[in-house]
Design a protein that fits this description.
Blueprint: H1 3-16, H2 26-38, E1 44-46, E2 51-56, E3 61-66, E4 82-84, E5 87-89, H3 93-112, E6 117-122, H4 130-135, H5 139-142, E7 146-149, E8 157-161, E9 163-172, H6 187-194, E10 212-220, E11 230-239, H7 245-259, E12 264-271, E13 274-275, H8 281-290, E14 294-297, H9 303-306, E15 313-315, E16 330-332, H10 333-351
Parallel strand pairs: 3-6, 3-7, 7-15, 8-14
Antiparallel strand pairs: 1-2, 2-6, 4-5, 5-16, 8-13, 9-11, 9-12, 10-11
Helix pairs in contact: 1-3, 1-10, 3-10, 8-10
């Protein structure tokens, strides 16, 4: 089977298998296990975190991706896992089963050339990233010549990404009958006075360098005829590598202080910002092979957990970033094949010793 047919077949197989985060993962893990075995590898499944890895030799490139997806949701006009010319449509096609298949295609070529390579796939990236956290310090990560996270980048090379801080903010009021609201203290109205002070952070001057705050959810009250005694918001804050969690805390506390409101803040999810030098040898090598620029992004990937243990990290893969998590998600077959070829050349050049 030639490279294009290999990618076409495996990609459609992976996209056909539902793998929404925290749902049933045995089917997609079994498919990945079988694909690794077809390459002659002996995979190891980490059942406690639903991840799978396999390697041949030591000191080669580590190719990483996640097999989980967000839910399909509504608004689709295309069937799942259907080809239309060069495009495969389906949830997870770009984010990021195409990246995972590019890993397999690259590993296939590297193994044919007798080169070392490792594959590491997770299934909880869209939510907790527990697998990457648990295995980031393992030898397969630490000893790799480079760790490539094959998220959809349109084949651009990513060397910097923002961190993620999710806070739950709560304002407490006092209940009363809805016919006598003056006897209560509406937590909803108090939150409504506080939130406009966060609005400037939803319209940054520079999305890559500024802290941003998104008010993702809001909940308050139990019935129309009851004055709400609590109002809760979930905040998605993003910080560049040059700014810390303390800087984000300061932004939130200043905003709520300016509103004159006491808001209790609970941090319940965190992914650290990550960056490697844009001119690092491993970054320049991949950018040169791809013929693409090196960029920073506003979102987070599993690179955040690998970089502290292996600074030779980078993010690179097929897929249109602007078309993920939306209806009619799609990916290009030609771009996925090209990604696999670039990654194979990258893996071979890494072990030649030219960047050490």
């Amino acid at each position: 089977m030639n490279e294009t047919e290999y990618v076409r077949t495996l990609l459609q197989e992976f996209v056909r298998i539902p793998s929404v985060t925290e749902a049933d993962m045995p089917a997609i893990l079994s498919a990945a296990e079988a694909a690794m075995e077809d390459l002659g590898l002996r995979p190891t499944i980490h059942r406690d975190v639903h991840a799978i890895e396999a390697s041949s030799g030591k000191g080669g490139v580590l190719l990483n991706g996640h097999l989980d997806t967000v839910p399909v949701a509504s608004g689709w006009t295309k069937d799942q896992a259907v080809w239309e010319g060069d495009w495969l449509y389906g949830r997870g096609a770009a984010d990021m089963k195409a990246g995972c298949v590019a890993c397999f295609a690259a590993a296939r070529r590297l193994l044919d050339r007798g080169q070392p390579v490792a594959l590491f796939l997770t299934t909880d990236e869209e939510t907790t990233m527990k697998a990457s956290i648990a295995l980031a310090s393992s030898p397969v990560v630490r000893e790799a010549a480079s760790v490539v996270v094959t998220e959809p980048t349109g084949l651009k090379v990513i060397a910097s990404e923002k961190g993620v801080l999710w806070y739950r903010g709560t304002i407490r009021g006092r209940s009363a009958h809805g016919s006598m609201p003056h006897l209560g203290d509406s937590a909803v109205l108090r939150m409504a006075r506080a939130l406009p002070h966060l609005e400037p952070y939803a319209h940054p001057q520079d999305g890559l360098r500024d802290i941003t705050v998104n008010v993702g959810t809001i909940q308050g009250g139990v019935a129309p005829n009851v004055v709400p005694d609590a109002c809760v918001v979930d905040l998605d804050c993003r910080n560049p590598p040059t700014l810390s969690k303390a800087d984000v805390d300061a932004v939130l506390h200043r905003a709520f202080a300016a509103a004159g409101e006491k808001v209790s803040l609970e941090l319940y999810h965190e992914v650290p910002a990550a960056a490697v030098p844009f001119d690092a040898p491993h970054v320049r090598l991949l950018a040169g092979l791809a013929g693409m620029e090196v960029v920073a992004v506003t979102y987070a990937t599993e690179m955040a957990w690998y970089a502290p243990h292996n600074p030779r990290c980078v993010v690179f893969g097929p897929g249109e970033t602007a078309r993920i998590h939306i209806p009619d998600e799609r990916v290009s077959l030609a771009e996925t094949v090209r990604a696999g070829n670039i990654l194979a050349d990258y893996g071979e050049r890494l072990v030649s010793g030219e960047i050490r």
